[in-house]
Amino acid sequence: MRGLWRSDTVTSITTRLFDTLEGDLVLCPEGLKGDAYASAGASETPSKRTQLSLQAPSTEEQLRTAHVGELTPLNGPIQIADYHPEWPRLFEREAERIRTVLGNRVLLLEHVGSTSVPGLAAKPRIDVLLVVADSADESAYIPALEAAAYVLHIREPDWYEHRLLKGPDTAINLHVFSPGCPEIDRMLLFRNWLRNNTSDRQLYERTKRELARLDWKYTQNYADAKATVVEEILARAQEGAGEEAHEGE
Questions:
Q1: Does any domain span residue 140?
Q2: CA–CA distances in Å: residue 161 to residues 65, 112, 180, 188, 207
Q3: Using an 8 Å Cβ cutoff, are 73 and 217 in contact?
Q4: For residues 161 and 172, is the Cβ–Cβ distance under 8 A?
Q5: Angle of helix 198-212 relative to helix 182-196, nearest 10 degrees?
Q6: Strands laid side by side in the 126-131 sheet
Q7: pLDDT digit string, tens, across residues 223-245
Q8: Could you tell me if residue 165 is inside a domain?
Q9: Which of 39, 145, 177, 200 has the fewest Cβ atoms within 10 angstroms?
């Protein structure tokens, strides 16, 4: 993706999650609706549910600033695949390789994003959450990963020092953060909620499939368009977590 949220003049703190998980970075400015929707890169009229999910797209300047190397437009439609039981195994294979490369520099390693939710359709790309002591200190972990054929694609110093790498032989997004980053808890909360909440899992899948039928210049534009539904689901997840904590007191 995407949400993974950012707080600055162009991005709401509540519109930046998980689709770093299905885009590459997640820059989700406040909503773009109605006639202005065409500027988001879509060529069809969305359904009412999809329209509610539309957000102003990340600007090309923002995308180019965060991107390491060339920013390449999509050359075809967004591909959403039915859930595949192979996805957890692909994560475990990647996790073993990362642990071998980084050793005790790995503070947390989790399978996140839609491929981590059994039964949820997803872009067939494994999202991996890696926590290291200081994600801004690239010299402490990037060279080791690059030696194992990982490639740095995203650098966001103004958003929790987020880094994103691609893998050597499997379609992955490797997201790197430091301890204490609030995105870590939000990503895990969203994943765990969708694993256990059928109605929100189905809502999220419907939204993704509707949006995937539209035309987008960049994957990130598709990711941005899901921000509203992600916010809705996350709000319910946070409420549910709060109720569980209250019951446990």
A1: yes
A2: 14, 19, 12, 19, 29
A3: yes
A4: no
A5: 100
A6: 108-112, 126-131, 172-177, 162-166, 151-156
A7: 899 999 999 999 999 999 887 76
A8: yes
A9: 39
Residue 34 covered by a domain: no
Phi, then psi, of 229 in degrees rounded to 5 = -65, -35
Q: Which amino acid is at 39?
A: S
Q: How many CB atoms lie within 10 A of CB 112?
A: 25
Cα separation, 1 vs 128, whole angstroms = 11
Look-up of token digits 């009412």: 48
Neighbours of 14 (CB within 10 A): 17
At position 98, the amino acid (one-letter code) is I
Is there a contact between 26 and 19 (Cβ–Cβ < 8 Å)?
yes
Which of 195, 210, 228, 243 is closest to 80 using CA atoms? 210
In a domain, 125, yes or no: yes
First-to-last alpha carbon distance for the chain, in angstroms, is: 35
Q: Give me the number of domains the chain comprises.
A: 1
Enter the tokens of residue 188.
Answer: 């895990």
Distance (Å, whole) CA 7 – CA 27: 10
Identify whether the C-beta of residue 219 lies closer than 8 Å to the C-beta of residue 19: no
Orientation angle between helical segments 227-247 and 198-212, nearest 10 degrees: 170
Question: Residue 155 belongs to what domain range?
Answer: 86-186
CATH assignment at residue 153: 3.30.460.10
Confidence of residue 126 (pLDDT cuts 50, 70, 90): very high
Specify the pTM.
Answer: 0.79
| 110 φ/ψ angles, rounded to the nearest 5 degrees | -135, 150
